[in-house]
């Protein structure tokens, strides 16, 4: 077994991010958890492959499937918190990630059980996961992040920043 710190992150991380659009078990779990573990080990080295990571997440978001959106949200949340430098570098990609899907789900009305799936051991609602992700991005990115989030998702209201 190879130590995770010795892996070539610039090679493996984009591959795992490309697999985020998998819906079959165990591939979906492997893609999500593998991506998160690689990010946790890579920290600032993510900056070298951030454009490729974003590209993989954009492809996954285009599928418009709630379980895939939730997996991408988990990865975005890890990106925002893995390192302050990475969190700030992520701001310039907010529009690419948030506009296609997040704005649609955030602005649509919650329908009873619509968008709910089994995620791990419990039921989760895609609207709630998106809202948690937006709040985390707002917290970790500062005022510049709020401006980008508000542009991409006009219905977003910050509890941390006033416009």
UniProtKB/TrEMBL annotation:
<dbReference type="InterPro" id="IPR019399">
    <property type="entry name" value="Parkin_co-regulated_protein"/>
</dbReference>
<dbReference type="GO" id="GO:0051879">
    <property type="term" value="F:Hsp90 protein binding"/>
</dbReference>
<dbReference type="Pfam" id="PF10274">
    <property type="entry name" value="ParcG"/>
</dbReference>
<dbReference type="GO" id="GO:0030544">
    <property type="term" value="F:Hsp70 protein binding"/>
</dbReference>
<protein>
    <submittedName>
        <fullName>Parkin coregulated gene protein homolog</fullName>
    </submittedName>
</protein>
């Amino acid at each position: 077994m190879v130590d995770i710190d010795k892996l070539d992150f610039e090679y493996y991380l984009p591959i795992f991010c490309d697999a985020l659009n998998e819906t079959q078990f165990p591939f979906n779990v492997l893609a999500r958890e593998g991506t998160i573990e690689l990010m946790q080990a890579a920290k600032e080295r993510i900056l070298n492959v951030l454009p490729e990571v974003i590209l993989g997440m954009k492809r996954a978001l285009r599928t418009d499937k709630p379980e895939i959106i939730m997996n991408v949200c988990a990865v975005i949340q890890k990106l925002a918190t893995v390192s302050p430098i990475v969190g700030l570098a992520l701001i310039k990609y907010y529009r690419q990630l948030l506009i296609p899907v997040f704005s649609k789900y955030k602005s649509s009305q919650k329908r009873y059980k619509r968008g709910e799936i089994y995620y791990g051991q419990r039921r989760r609602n895609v609207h709630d996961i998106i809202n948690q992700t937006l709040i985390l991005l707002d917290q970790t990115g500062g005022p510049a992040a709020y401006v980008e989030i508000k542009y991409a998702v006009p219905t977003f209201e910050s509890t941390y920043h006033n416009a």
